[in-house]
Amino acid sequence: MAKISNMLIGILYVHVISVVVTARVLPLHPYLNSQETPITNIFDTSKYGILQLGNGLAKTPQMGWNSWNFFACDISEDVIKETADALVSTGLAKLGYIYVNIDDCWSEPQRDPKGQLVPDPQTFPSGIKALADYVHSKGLKLGIYSDAGAFTCQVRPGSLFHESDDAELFASWGVDYLKYDNCFNLGIDPETRYPPMRDALNATGRTIFYSLCEWGVHDPALWAGKVGNSWRTTDDINDSWASMTTIADLNDKWAAFAGPGGWNDPDMLEVGNGGMSYHEYRAHFSIWALMKAPLLIGCDVRNMTQETFEILSNEEVIAVNQDPLGVQGRKVYSYGPDGCYQVWAGPLSGQRLAVVLWNRGSKPATITAKWASLGIESSTSVSIKDLWKHKCVTENKVASFSARVDPHACEMYIFSPLAVARSAS
């Protein structure tokens, strides 16, 4: 009996150790039928926890729309309704853009005599509950905004020390998403201020996506996985090439900490707001998708140009963002003047690899991705599909791949090992 017990203990020990060692390359994944082995192991995922918050949300990064980048405080229930309508009529909702998120300025400047938040009667005369009902009738979800401080950034009442009351109110209105900001925080550490709202949201019994907007001040990637479904890693984005590229680099630092249930958030999309060129916006969208960033549209979807719609509706790029493997892509190699010729990559399910060649210089350039920098064996043969041209560019590539890239532009591909590609066809 003792021998059998010792043998079982030994077997269990070997099994546990093998699982732990394997998990440092790629964690066992609850949303795939089996553990997948990517074609490269250079993408460290040892630091992320799967569904740490445990509310069942954020299996993939959230997608939707937010009012702030285009409208700022110039919002109303009509704008929200018309936006919901536009997401449906354009087909964006079917592609996954399901959250319609109201940002700051929706509430009265003071709470009512009972201490409750009150929607601004001039801009939201029907109230948030009626608005949520409308959005839900379109098959979409409604998000709202508050602050882990005494006031919001636009000096409306914040939810600090009002977490339970406000969470219950949001739940009673049918809110599905909370963006929780960081202004007027009284100098209290975010690690102290953000968990109470998590607990309050969970206590309502309603499943509400919890988006921390802490601006990356206290490196939330290190602690927010047990608090929220996503966490801002950077300051606010603005509609410029300089802002977008800077934020991409800052978010890249935390790639190992993102995964199903909790995502790094480099802020909302600026695509379509007019401050960048078509190529710059396409690079913005491509890199955000590769980084598994939330894809939250920030333009006026009621009045999009065809170019804007083309970018936001690229199903193949969206599929990279929503891939169930859930590993954040990252910068793997850069060279040239100031490192402006860049290779970004990330593993996907099915042993595939998403690769972006990004030219951050001011002149056209040929950028090369070498298999060594991607972590692929030099003898591995891959088929390569261009996600913006929507066609296969080569069926049997070995060792390296090069492409001509315009200034401030990128090209995005999926590399599929030949054996895998053949078995799938």
TrEMBL record:
<dbReference type="InterPro" id="IPR013780">
    <property type="entry name" value="Glyco_hydro_b"/>
</dbReference>
<dbReference type="InterPro" id="IPR000111">
    <property type="entry name" value="Glyco_hydro_27/36_CS"/>
</dbReference>
<keyword id="KW-0326">Glycosidase</keyword>
<dbReference type="InterPro" id="IPR041233">
    <property type="entry name" value="Melibiase_C"/>
</dbReference>
<dbReference type="GO" id="GO:0005975">
    <property type="term" value="P:carbohydrate metabolic process"/>
</dbReference>
<dbReference type="InterPro" id="IPR002241">
    <property type="entry name" value="Glyco_hydro_27"/>
</dbReference>
<protein>
    <recommendedName>
        <fullName>Alpha-galactosidase</fullName>
        <ecNumber>3.2.1.22</ecNumber>
    </recommendedName>
</protein>
<keyword id="KW-0378">Hydrolase</keyword>
<dbReference type="InterPro" id="IPR017853">
    <property type="entry name" value="GH"/>
</dbReference>
<keyword id="KW-0732">Signal</keyword>
<feature type="domain" description="Alpha galactosidase C-terminal">
    <location>
        <begin position="338"/>
        <end position="414"/>
    </location>
</feature>
<dbReference type="GO" id="GO:0004557">
    <property type="term" value="F:alpha-galactosidase activity"/>
</dbReference>
<dbReference type="Pfam" id="PF17801">
    <property type="entry name" value="Melibiase_C"/>
</dbReference>
<keyword id="KW-1015">Disulfide bond</keyword>
<dbReference type="Pfam" id="PF16499">
    <property type="entry name" value="Melibiase_2"/>
</dbReference>
<dbReference type="InterPro" id="IPR013785">
    <property type="entry name" value="Aldolase_TIM"/>
</dbReference>
<comment type="similarity">
    <text>Belongs to the glycosyl hydrolase 27 family.</text>
</comment>
